[in-house]
Specification:
Layout (H helix, E strand, L loop, with lengths): L1 H23 L9 H15 L5 H8 L12 H10 L5 H6 L36 H22 L9 E4 L3 E2 L3 E8 L11 E4 L7 E2 L6 E5 L4 E8 L2 E10 L5 E6 L2 E8 L13 H7 L8 E6 L9 E9 L12 E7 L3 E6 L9 E4 L2 E4 L16 E8 L2 E6 L2 E7 L7 E9 L3 E8 L5 E5 L5
Parallel strand pairs: 2-8
Antiparallel strand pairs: 1-3, 3-6, 4-5, 4-7, 7-8, 9-10, 9-11, 11-20, 12-17, 12-21, 13-14, 13-20, 14-15, 15-16, 17-18, 18-19, 21-22
Helix pairs in contact: 1-4, 2-3
């Protein structure tokens, strides 16, 4: 049975690849260059949210030959099907039943049908006095085809499901309890819901009537998102409060553990941690690690009209730390602003997030944002009427407008790769009044 399903899946995988190639604008897959695969990788990321490297796409489309054919995971197949114009992989397979044939195996030369490229043409009339009847039949065929295309490509009806959290506010750490509430006459597939928790953990399925508990291990404001058939339908903030600043270390290579550090405080050299403190907490300082400084509390300011000044210094060169990055996040009621600053040579990894707008250095040119703060500097972020302006050391770097307000501010996170330091932080509201300040007044 498993072998048969494997062949059946490759049949549909070949077919969806042909759809993707058609939408990509180059149906001749065999002629694709490395640049085509790189461009398709960026297009899929922007349109579907899936991150597929050019080498992975080459394996899927057969450019890279392996001893055993590569079969992508469900999330990848969902993304390919969505780019092809379908709700997800299951929807694509359901609408393309495999035709019956004599053998179970798929020969190397078998032709998999691709997306239709022409409207069916009516056959020549067999009897000369039937032209009107045949014209009517042809018109009906064309109308039926167009109707089917419209139905197939119709957007999924909105689902009025709600994500409920019985304890959305807590300390650090915190176990949040989730459930979902559906409309009284829900007629969809109740098995197609899942939750993205807003941290680094994997998404989890959830069914109506069930309870799902998630463990949040670092202080922040998280935005858990309920998805139905891979489409977001509702968001629920989960808020882990702090009592002043906290410091927590973690590593990309160790996603199962975090390393709480003693509560930091501003001293003559600002606020930082020492290598000895990191080593004592269990951090492997010979590999890449990050230290998050978080201060979460409700502020008398809106995230759509404020000014932030931060004087800081990023990590000096050390094992695992080449790009000397810093991430500054401001938590709003509904979503967040976030800037990831890198050295000029590393801007491919930089990103900017302002509410619903995300600019990724892998798909956009963020070279103006490249900046080296290892010797210290001042970051100034001004947001007014949903228009953000980013300045570093009095040099304007980027400005952008966004549409969805993020609401009241609920705290700040400053995260360094390696050992950085914060000298001063100040935040003013729309009236110019200081509502958050640590480390002294910023000149």
């Amino acid at each position: 049975m498993e072998q048969y399903e494997h062949k059946e899946s490759f049949y549909h995988l070949d077919m969806v690849c042909r759809y993707v190639a058609g939408n990509f604008g180059n149906p001749e897959i065999g002629s694709w260059t490395n640049g085509d695969y790189l461009r398709l990788s960026g297009i899929l990321s922007r349109h579907t949210g899936i991150q597929l490297s050019p080498s992975t796409l080459k394996r899927i489309f057969g450019k890279l030959k392996t001893t055993e054919r590569y079969y992508p995971q469900k999330a990848t197949r969902d993304g390919l099907a969505q780019y092809a114009g379908f709700a997800d992989w299951d929807d694509f397979v359901e609408k393309h039943p495999r035709p019956a044939r004599s053998g179970e195996g798929r020969g190397a030369g078998e032709v998999v049908p691709g997306p239709p490229t022409k409207l069916p043409q009516p056959r020549a009339p067999l009897i000369s006095w039937w032209p009107a009847l045949l014209l009517m039949a042809g018109a009906c065929a064309i109308f039926g085809w167009q109707w089917w295309q419209k139905v197939r490509n119709a957007p999924e009806p909105e689902v009025a499901a709600k994500l409920i959290c019985s304890n959305p506010v807590g300390g650090n750490p915190h176990s949040a309890v989730f459930r979902i509430r559906l409309p009284e006459h829900f007629k969809g597939d109740s098995s197609r819901f899942h939750i993205a928790f807003g941290d680094r953990s994997r998404e989890q399925p959830i069914r109506p009537g069930a309870v799902l508990t998630h463990y949040y291990e670092m202080p922040a404001r998280y935005y858990a998102v309920l998805h139905y058939k891979n489409r977001p339908v509702d968001t629920m903030p989960v808020y882990l409060k702090t009592n002043g600043w906290t410091a927590t270390a973690w590593s990309y290579l160790d996603t199962t553990r975090v390393y709480p550090l003693k509560a930091p405080a501003f001293g003559p050299g600002g606020m930082s941690v020492t290598p000895r403190e990191l080593h004592a907490s269990g951090v492997d300082t010979l590999h890449t690690f990050l230290v998050d400084y978080v201060n979460t509390r409700e502020l008398d300011a809106t995230g759509d009209d404020f000014e932030l000044h931060a004087r800081l210094a990023t990590s000096a060169l050390r094992p695992g730390i080449r790009c000397s990055q810093v991430i500054i996040s401001l938590y709003g009621e509904k979503s967040r602003h976030e800037i990831l600053l890198m050295k000029p040579g590393c801007v491919s990894w930089a990103h900017l997030v302002f509410s619903e707008k995300r600019i990724d250095g892998r798909q956009e040119d963020l070279s103006p944002v490249g900046t080296d703060l290892t010797n210290g500097g001042t970051v100034h972020l001004r947001v007014k009427d949903r228009h953000a302006e980013l300045t570093v050391n009095d040099k304007p770097l980027y400005n952008i407008a966004y549409d969805q307000p993020i609401g009241k501010l609920y705290g700040i996170r400053i995260s360094f790769a390696g050992i950085g330091s914060i000298q001063q932080v100040q935040l003013k509201n729309a009236d110019g009044r200081v509502v958050f300040e640590d480390g002294g007044e910023i000149k």
